[in-house]
Amino acid sequence: MASPNRNARSAVVLGRLLGIAFLVCFGTGIYSHLLQQPFPGMRFPTRPVQLYQFTQGLHITAGIAIIPLLLAKLNTVMPALVQVPPVRGVLHLLERLSIAVLVSAAIVQVGTGLLNTYQWYPFPFPFKQVHNALAYVIIGSLIVHVAVKLRVIVRYWRARDSYDEQGRFVPDTTVGSELLPPSADREARLDPAMPAAATQAATAYPRGLTGRVLRWVDGAPAAAPAPPPAPAPAAESRAGRPNSGPEPREVSPSASLGAPEASLGAEPSRASRPPVAATAGRRERITRRGFFAGVAAATVGVVALTAGQSSSLAEPFNVFGARQRHRGPSDLPVNRTARAAGVLATATAADWSLTVAGPAVSRTFSRAELVALGTAEADLPIACVEGWSQMATWRGVRMRDLLLAVQAEPGSRVRVTSLEQHGGYRVMEMGPEYAEDPTTLVALELNGATLDLDHGFPARIIAPGRPGVLQTKWIERIEVIA
What we know:
The chain has 17 helices and ten strands. By secondary structure, the chain is of the alpha+beta class. Strands 2-1-10-5-6 form a five-stranded mixed β-sheet. Strands 3, 4, 7, 8 and 9 form a five-stranded antiparallel β-sheet that branches. α1 (about 10-35) runs antiparallel to α2 (about 50-75).
């Protein structure tokens, strides 16, 4: 489990990135939720018209980026998660429980959120309510986690305080870090001051290529070549000689001057080897950089290959996005078809009409009468909660003109009802900031052509800065409610 990238500094770096991503998702998610379920009296900006397109695209992109970051963080802290004993006291138990809540909630949140972008719901609970509730659980447990690990975070916030001059991680058990560098056994293998017997035991590597690879990974010195076998004693030649004492030994000039003898194939001297600390530090740096390079590549990859569903810049790389831009009727994708909504007959009925009900006056308009009122054009995006979005050109009757036709008071709210008989968004309410905006239309045309049935024919709502689920299609009634 010991690895140079599994240390407190790596955990802090990944934690920072995850914290930013979770906060971005939380902020943009709350904004989307309030747009759909506002508190009484709330008003929202209508400019820029691409506001929701930006915030929801950022929400989905940050959520997808969390997946590789979360996997990397779990890999980094794995030694602490599987430590023995798993619990060392009551406070430690509470800390472990908070981590369990944070990790499990995060996994469920990003997993179900990703499935929602593809409109696949294999889970047995309502997505919107659970997704909203888990957001608060994650932020709450994240605050607890940061508070518990604050000393570790402060201690290892900066790289220069986390590594020594050689690039080795500096452990500090006084701040409560459970992530330690590789074991002392590995350090002992690299210590040239060890006794010969201990060194031989610590460096028992297999022979051949496997042994060389393991030595390279551990930063251990190369094995010394085996000494040549001792020559067999010349017993026969000595048998016939008289015992004349030890034979004279030839001494080289260098030996006579006190120089050590050189042997062929001997190990280099210690002075010629790089320092052990420097070698270990270099290898740790390489391992850490490789790990973070892999995390960065994975994060950039998943973002670049999905962000094209909401960004024109990344559109050429949109390989895994749930929707492809410019694909669908009138060059615009469709989320919910007329068949799925069950409006094939009612939306194409010859007697269709739109009822606009004011406080004192109520009027009914056929499609031809709506056109006769006068139409306006607006360039507005469709921005869906699943993350995809696209700008389009709409033409229709201004909402404020219809409200004036029924003598609605300025600052009125409206309720719009669809031909759909089922679904959570068949009835939609719109605040006065949208109802009075000159670009809010009862749209009759899309991109220069009559509305396609799947895009809301005979008439639909389009307004600036609103989620796609609130751009009601197949409308039959507009009612002034305040």
